[in-house]
Amino acid sequence: MEEKLRRIGADALQDLSSACTLEDLNDLRVKYLGKKGELTQVMRGMGALSAAERPLIGQIANEVRASIEKELATRTSALKKLAKELRLKDEGIDVTLPGSPVLRGGKHPLSIVTEEIQKFFLGLGYNIAEGPEIETDYYNFEALNLPKDHPARDMQDTFFISSDTLLRTQTSSVQVRTMEKTAPNLPVKVISPGKVYRRDDDATHSPMFSQVEGLAIDRRITFSDLKGTLDLFMREIFGPKTKTRFRPSYFPFTEPSAEVDISCVMCGGKGCRVCSHTGWLEILGSGMVHPRVLEVSGYNSEEVTGFAFGLGVERITMLKYGIDDLRILFENDLRFLRQF
């Protein structure tokens, strides 16, 4: 048995010295030291030895095991080092090569226009007010002089969540909430930008779009203040040569009400296909705050007046940049977005 143990040890050391991979080393470990390995099988037969032979054979077996384990550790360390060197060589980086370009993002055209609008009105002393997109029927309709049976509700095809909860169709609800919080303090000057929702979808309409509504309330505000503010705003957004005109209209929450047109940004008012050869483009709705809306919100309509207006950011953006299809603003096409 002594001779067999020493032969196993010699064979194992020779095999380990010639192993080229970590997988080979693992196979040899199993071959000699595993549960069914050659050395293990010999050691299991030691029970048949005499009491005098057992200590000597046990000592030799331990020496052979120790030598195999030492050579395994040495070869494993050497092969790991070699594998690391080869990997570093294969994965070497030439630091003199130019780096990969990092693509830079940019602002979406809707964000650009929204910021321009906010900057203008902040410069006039307005504040920015925000409110919930999931709104109650009261703030979206009733407080704006639109009771449940009012026919003007048909003008806005609404997403209802329940009989009293909906996705807001306009940011005018923020104006009502603002007036409730500030009444009876004066003045009130706010714009309320945000997303609104209506059941509409085509080349010029989207079920979700952005609005900016404005509100100003004080003791002697007149329609002339509204006209002056919007005229200055249009010239700031579309250029100093832009003209405005006001046409009588109807909105339940303002009286009197007016649609605001601007001279065509494409033809300068001469008449073209975009403006249907009229020279004018419809841009937003406006008017003096209805006395009933003031009263509901906590203001005395005999003492104060105010004006309000609402504009679609997408409409402004399309006219400003000559975009003829609203849907392209939401498609995330980088060929389009990189132009801004």
From TrEMBL:
<keyword id="KW-0067">ATP-binding</keyword>
<dbReference type="GO" id="GO:0016740">
    <property type="term" value="F:transferase activity"/>
</dbReference>
<comment type="similarity">
    <text>Belongs to the class-II aminoacyl-tRNA synthetase family. Phe-tRNA synthetase alpha subunit type 1 subfamily.</text>
</comment>
<dbReference type="InterPro" id="IPR045864">
    <property type="entry name" value="aa-tRNA-synth_II/BPL/LPL"/>
</dbReference>
<keyword id="KW-0460">Magnesium</keyword>
<feature type="binding site">
    <location>
        <position position="255"/>
    </location>
    <ligand>
        <name>Mg(2+)</name>
    </ligand>
</feature>
<dbReference type="InterPro" id="IPR004188">
    <property type="entry name" value="Phe-tRNA_ligase_II_N"/>
</dbReference>
<keyword id="KW-0479">Metal-binding</keyword>
<comment type="subunit">
    <text>Tetramer of two alpha and two beta subunits.</text>
</comment>
<keyword id="KW-0436">Ligase</keyword>
<dbReference type="Pfam" id="PF02912">
    <property type="entry name" value="Phe_tRNA-synt_N"/>
</dbReference>
<dbReference type="GO" id="GO:0005524">
    <property type="term" value="F:ATP binding"/>
</dbReference>
<feature type="domain" description="Aminoacyl-transfer RNA synthetases class-II family profile">
    <location>
        <begin position="113"/>
        <end position="319"/>
    </location>
</feature>
<dbReference type="InterPro" id="IPR022911">
    <property type="entry name" value="Phe_tRNA_ligase_alpha1_bac"/>
</dbReference>
<dbReference type="GO" id="GO:0006432">
    <property type="term" value="P:phenylalanyl-tRNA aminoacylation"/>
</dbReference>
<keyword id="KW-0648">Protein biosynthesis</keyword>
<keyword id="KW-0030">Aminoacyl-tRNA synthetase</keyword>
<dbReference type="GO" id="GO:0000287">
    <property type="term" value="F:magnesium ion binding"/>
</dbReference>
<dbReference type="InterPro" id="IPR010978">
    <property type="entry name" value="tRNA-bd_arm"/>
</dbReference>
<dbReference type="InterPro" id="IPR006195">
    <property type="entry name" value="aa-tRNA-synth_II"/>
</dbReference>
<keyword id="KW-0963">Cytoplasm</keyword>
<dbReference type="GO" id="GO:0005737">
    <property type="term" value="C:cytoplasm"/>
</dbReference>
<dbReference type="GO" id="GO:0000049">
    <property type="term" value="F:tRNA binding"/>
</dbReference>
<dbReference type="GO" id="GO:0140096">
    <property type="term" value="F:catalytic activity, acting on a protein"/>
</dbReference>
<protein>
    <recommendedName>
        <fullName>Phenylalanine--tRNA ligase alpha subunit</fullName>
        <ecNumber>6.1.1.20</ecNumber>
    </recommendedName>
</protein>
<dbReference type="Pfam" id="PF01409">
    <property type="entry name" value="tRNA-synt_2d"/>
</dbReference>
<dbReference type="InterPro" id="IPR002319">
    <property type="entry name" value="Phenylalanyl-tRNA_Synthase"/>
</dbReference>
<dbReference type="InterPro" id="IPR004529">
    <property type="entry name" value="Phe-tRNA-synth_IIc_asu"/>
</dbReference>
<keyword id="KW-0547">Nucleotide-binding</keyword>
<dbReference type="GO" id="GO:0004826">
    <property type="term" value="F:phenylalanine-tRNA ligase activity"/>
</dbReference>
